[in-house]
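Deliverable D4.2, example record:
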Amino acid sequence: MWVTLYSASDCRQRSADPLGSELGVISDEAAYGRDVGEALKDMAERLDMQDMRFLAVAVTIQQQSGGNLAEILARSGSRLSAPASSCSAA
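Output generated by the structure prediction step:
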């Protein structure tokens, strides 16, 4: 869990608002013992971002199954960035 808290805090400082502030909320909530997957799910709903919903599901699955989160995120990230890159090429 320490890595998650550190990562969220680090991303908080590097990201512009509203994402930076939202990552700060997640970092604070996790520090107080809230489930990170639930915190991410709530953030996705507040921001109305489908990509964040996928991230929340991936984190929750990893927490329950013990899978390789980095691999899950790498695969998901490449799938999620494909539509964005095709839009920018147009």
